[in-house]
Design brief:
The protein is mainly β. The protein is built from no helices and eleven strands.
């Protein structure tokens, strides 16, 4: 059974940092592009950051550029999201997802292209 398991969420203060982790089980994550999405109740899920299968290409949503960093360790089947200088606007449930496209393309921005999804981890940021 293929699973993506997020961890690392929690409650922090504005300006703090947090690192989210996504572990792939039953799947070789190195065969997939990966992304982090987030969703706030009542709003659409948005792409936060994405990374190609090799890790050579990363892309970020405008609201997190310069603050968040996506990375991966294919030997460990892990993907990470380092979040710095968190703002209350960053509070959401964060999901990792896998897309069956190794090389970067504009399809990374299409949620329906993602084959596997985790269940999410909650991030709360207080001011």
């Amino acid at each position: 059974q293929i699973q993506l398991l997020e961890s690392g969420g929690g409650s922090v203060q504005a300006g703090d940092s947090l690192t989210l982790s996504c572990e792939g089980r039953g799947v070789i994550l190195g065969n997939y592009g990966m992304a982090w999405f987030r969703q706030v109740p009542g709003k659409d899920r948005e792409l936060v950051a994405a990374i190609s299968a090799s890790g050579g290409t990363q892309n970020y949503g405008d609201s997190v550029k310069g603050r968040f960093t996506i990375s991966r360790d294919n030997y460990k089947d892990m993907v990470y999201l380092q979040m710095n200088n968190l703002d209350p606007e960053d509070a959401a449930v964060y999901y990792c997802a896998a897309i069956a496209r190794s090389y970067w393309s504009t399809r990374y921005g299409v949620q329906s292209e993602y084959k596997y999804w985790g269940r999410g981890t909650q991030v709360t940021v207080s001011s």
